[in-house]
Amino acid sequence: MVTEALKTIEEKMKSSVKVFREDLATIRTGHASPSLVEHIKVDYAGVPMPLNQLAGISAPEVGLLVIQPWDKGSISSIEKAILKSDMGLNPSNDGNIIRIGIPPLSEERRQELIKIVHKRVEERRIVIRNLRHDTLNEMKKLEKDKDISQDEHKRAQEQLQKLTDSYMTEVDKVGKDKEKELLEL
């Protein structure tokens, strides 16, 4: 029972870190990356859809994104959605493709983005601590119901803490890497 609970919590923590990485990928740096815009919701035939389901997105140069809609009629909808997003991007189209120049970040904007990264790191740490807390409660209940011994409970707690510490370290590392990427000129 304990090993199953630990495997389950490890999967949840691993998944949480994966989602965190994807979340940080949407924070704009000075480099063009398809992940910056692929999540933007575009109103297509009255249905909001992620941009990556309507077009091919590529970054042929460091400061340029190219969006090739599969349906040429969706170009204006895609352009409107990009303008509405809070990313400060200015798309231009030639009737077939949309180009987005990614301007370099100002020092002030870099600092704002670093604060956002720090906030998201802390939010993810809280998620992991909550997962640990739920599992601890589950283990206490198992001990109370005499399904596991005190020794097993103690060992499981130690293993859970090691797991939690390793994923906290991983979250911190991902956050530091993103911060370093934001500070690069």
Structure, explained:
The structure is a single chain. Helix 1 packs antiparallel against helix 3, helix 1 packs parallel to helix 4 and helix 3 runs antiparallel to helix 4. This protein is α+β, with helices and mostly antiparallel strands. The mean pLDDT is 88. It contains four helices and six strands, in the order αββββαββαα. 23% of the residues are buried. It folds into two domains: 102 residues, Ribosome-recycling factor (Topoisomerase I, Chain A, domain 4, Orthogonal Bundle); 68 residues, 2-Layer Sandwich (Gyrase A, domain 2). A four-stranded antiparallel β-sheet has the order 3-4-6-5, covered by helices on one side. It has a two-stranded antiparallel sheet with strand order 1-2. The radius of gyration is 22 Å and the shape is elongated.
